[in-house]
Design a protein that fits this description.
alpha+beta; 4 helices; 5-stranded mixed beta barrel
C-alpha cells in the first residue's frame, strides 16, 4: 500500500522548501569558492594583515596566502630600471608589522584572482609613498583607479618635478 497522500498544498510547500534549501546550498558553495571563475569568499573590505612576501613594487602576498595588487599605481617590471628599488622600498614600507588593507568594493579582484586595494602603514598610504619617491607611475583603471587618481597624480607630479627615481634626467 502506498504511503498517505499529501494534500496538494502540502506537497507544493514541501517542494518549495526542498528547492529553497538546495538553492541556499549552491549559493553557499559559490561564496566559499565552489562557484565558476575560481571565485572565493568575498573579502572584508577593510582589514589588518601581515605581509608574508613582497613580490614586487606593487604586489604583495599576505600572511593568509592571498595576493594583493595595489590600485592606482604601477611600478617597473623585472626587466625595467628601478624595479629593484621599487621592491626594496615596498619591503621597507610594508615588511615589518601590520598593514591596513582597504579592498576596492567595485572590483575586489583582478583577472588573476588577486585582491585589488590600497595598503597603509601607520596612516601612510604606501602607493602614494612609492609615487612620491619616484618609484611608481599612476595607473588609472576604472572603477577602482578613479578613487585616488587626483591625489596620486599630484604626488607623481611632485616626484617628476623633483627628478626623483623614474623621473631622473632621462625619465622626465
Amino acid at each position: 500500500m502506498a504511503g498517505p497522500v499529501l494534500p496538494a498544498r502540502r506537497r507544493a510547500l514541501r517542494s518549495l522548501l526542498t528547492v529553497s534549501v538546495a538553492a541556499l546550498a549552491v549559493f553557499a558553495g559559490f561564496w566559499r569558492g565552489g562557484g565558476p571563475g575560481g571565485g572565493t569568499e568575498p573579502p572584508p573590505y577593510v582589514f589588518t594583515a601581515r605581509v608574508a612576501w613582497v613580490i614586487d613594487g606593487d604586489t604583495v602576498e599576505l600572511d593568509d596566502g592571498r595576493r594583493l595588487r595595489y590600485v592606482g599605481i604601477d611600478t617597473p617590471e623585472r626587466d625595467e630600471p628601478f624595479c629593484n628599488a621599487a621592491r626594496r622600498a615596498n619591503i621597507e614600507l610594508v615588511g615589518r608589522g601590520e598593514v591596513l588593507v582597504q579592498v576596492c568594493r567595485d572590483e575586489p579582484r583582478d583577472k588573476y584572482g588577486r585582491l585589488l586595494g590600497w595598503v597603509s602603514v601607520d596612516g601612510l598610504d604606501v602607493g602614494a609613498e612609492l609615487l612620491g619617491r619616484g618609484l611608481a607611475r599612476t595607473l588609472v583603471i576604472p572603477p577602482c583607479g578613479l578613487e585616488r587618481a587626483g591625489r596620486y597624480a599630484a604626488v607623481e607630479s611632485g616626484a617628476r618635478s623633483a627628478g626623483l627615481g623614474l623621473w631622473a634626467s632621462s625619465g622626465r
